[in-house]
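pasting for ref
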Amino acid sequence: SKTSTSGQLDRAPETQQSCTIKVIDYSSKRITHHDVAGTSQDLQSFLTSTPKPTWAACRWIYVNGLDHEVIKSLGQARDLHRLAIEDVLERSAPSKVDWYSNNCFMVLAWQRLVNNAHRHSLTEVFHDEAPAIEKQDALSPIQRGLRQRTKWCSTSHREFGLSSEHVSAFMTSDNTIITIFEGAGDEVLHLILHQLESSRTILRSSNDPSMLIHAVIDAVVDLAVPIERAIAEAFAELESAVLENPDIKQSKELYRLRSALTILMDDISAIGSVVKSLCDHQEAPTLSRPDDADPTSTPQEVLVPISPLAKIYLQDVNDHITMLANATLRGVHSAENLTSLIFNTITA
């Protein structure tokens, strides 16, 4: 249950996963980078000694790697809700957006394209570092969840494979954006840093923290597009082979391709729902109480805005999501039709 899992946050021992932390303060006129050592003590010390400067329109706290103590320390330092921290560490958390008293929290399911050589090497590393079977029971539920999330998706076809991870993000009322990646965040980081380094980009010049949220979602969607293209190319080759010489073994390849497309379609559609929720969010202050406040106390006004500019650009992302979802749906139907053709031809 939510309550019991939340209680485990205090008792779970520190995980051994490496963690990269960067803090970037920026405005239209200036930008500074800070590399923070990947421990909870270093992060807490930095956040205490180096508050967001007054000139900064936005502070971006970037975390790549799920270290339990780091995430817990970040949650305490930034007064993030315990349920949100639980969702950051929970593999089954769906793509969603939640509004708390002082922040907006979202989770995105991210599908990435990788080559088979990379996928196998990472899988071997995972198995080498995995504890013995008899030691698994000693791990906390959170640790078991973290280990499970480092595994790569088994869907593969010839020269490519898919990996899946969750991206968590917070947008706070003091214009701080926190993004937490399981391990592949550098791909998104490089795309966004390229925009932040130039004062002429809309991301920098707008002085709008919610545009950074748009940039993260846009990058996640853009990095999923190659999956559909790679599967379409593999499907075209397989389609030619089926029409020329249908074989029952080809149905297995079609099943893998259809499964990959279905996963992509489900995840990309869920991201579309998150984008729609952000676009529909009203700018008027919401009434909310602090988590530890007396239920009978007067609610406080809290404003975590999604700017009109960000909503315009999020609508553009939603258009890309719709096109990608439609393309994957057509691919699923084509795979089903080709599978039927194989069986009909063989049994004729």
